[in-house]
Amino acid sequence: MSIATECVGLDIGQTGLKAVRFRRRLSGRESVEYFHHPMPFGRPEDLEPARRVHTLRGFLWQHGLYATDRLVTAIPCQDLFVRTLTFPFRDSAKLAQVVPFEVENLVPMPLEDLAIGSIVLPPGHEAAGDSGPKKNSEVLVTAAPKDKVAEHLKFLAQADVEPSAINVDAMALYSVSEYLRKSGAQVPRDLAIVDIGASKTTLCLVHEGRPVVLRTIVWGGNQLTKALAVRSACSFAEAERRKRAMAVPQVEAWLEPLLKELRVTMHAYEGGDRGKLTHCWVSGGGAKLRDIGGYVAQQMGLYPVGPRQGFGANAPRAFSVAFGLAIHPKLVRPRWRFTPSPTGLALDLKAITEAAAPKPETATRDRKLAVWGAVLVGMLALVDASARIALQDRRVTHLKAAVQQQYEQTFASPATPGDELDQARYRLGLLDKALATVDNSQGTVLATMSAFVKQLPAGVSVKVRDLTIDGETILFEGETFSFDAVEKIKRTFAASPRFRDVAVTETRVGAASNQVVFRMTGRVQQP
Q1: Are 64 and 71 in contact (CB under 8 A)?
Q2: How far apart are CA 425 and CA 420, in angstroms?
Q3: In percent, how much of the chain has pLDDT > 70?
Q4: Which of 93, 133, 352, 375 ranks highest by number of CB atoms within 10 Å?
Q5: pLDDT of residue 128
Q6: pLDDT value, residue 109
Q7: Nearest to residue 172, comparing CAs of 370, 316, 274?
Q8: CB distance 99 to 141 below 8 Å
Q9: Residues β-bridged to residue 391
Q10: 463-484: b or e for each residue (b if 16 or more CB lie within 10 Å)?
Q11: What is the pTM of this model?
């Protein structure tokens, strides 16, 4: 049997869920699977935690991601304090003692409310040629508020998810570049990674092959879509559709807030005599905008990367964060090895929080008193419970018999003792569904489907590919033999008093001869 390492990276965004399943066998063979599920966010109720938890649970069940024992999530940089600090020594024990005191002077929060982690960055490429050993050390320090990590874990626990590690989204981007480099690509050692999401942009500056700056910019593709919707006086969904067909010169003015923040961050880093960056890689969902990669690189004074540097068509552009989480170096072993490397450049906020949890030290005398007190309370509780059980045993037996008798009278069949209530709810639910299907007064699916089928024009051949009915709304995808037939179908439905808001959202030529595929939406007027 082959030995394989499997890890799932889960990126929970505002407008969608993205997951990547990464497998690596002992032979070095790798397989990657990508999963995506869009989430609505335009209404306040769409952002309710209960609804998002329900969506996440369904997403994981649908794609079988509950089966993995290694799942990694991420917290955005905007919820953390992240800095690269320089110390005049390299002793790891001294660094572990000094880092919290340095953070205390920089963060306006008590240390007991923070989970502080640090990564000692390896020496840069230039340091390898120095004649003497390098005494200074650069440390990437993260300070995570414990309540943020607890909130993230609580959200995942509601979806029955126990993550193996919690990374930072910007560090996941760095892991992607390291993966490409170890795969043999000529990844630049001085690289700016810009991941444009729906509500935020994540930035990771890599200098001499090390992550030195991690930042979140509160600007995403939604701002661009909203600006297009205002200019074109159309809906958000229509503006999003138009945006995907546009090029950078058409939306150049609205990209300036993002570019300004990118320039400020890069100039602030380079102004400290830390070296110049050379290349830029644009990823995330915003990277789908035509020519965005070259434009952002040009505005930052950098060279865009491409297949020559390892960022070709196979690079996980839209799934960059999820892919970086799935190859967490402390969970996924390198090629030809049985165990992962514990020294990989990656964060685990979960482990940091658990290590920072308070561990009370109780004196021997107090511990003995606590034990005797617990024994006494337990004995009293046992006596009280025994008395209550003796008094209520007869009542419980009587109630069980009454419930069983009532179930048999109502449904004319016996039920499993103890499950009467659940079985009654199940049977009543079946009855409600059956009645709702044939009840025309409530605007059911059956009535809506009947009105739709009767309205199809005679003499026009229509093949239904997909028919979705949500209350009074119909989403229809079909195919016919000509564009005139599509227009005839639209006019017939628009002229009917039973339908309103009829619109053909997409029309295209199909793969077969004389085949036209179209999508149409509308609403049914209830009589």
Answers
A1: no
A2: 9
A3: 89
A4: 352
A5: 42
A6: 85
A7: 316
A8: yes
A9: none
A10: eeeeeebeebebebbbbbbeee
A11: 0.65
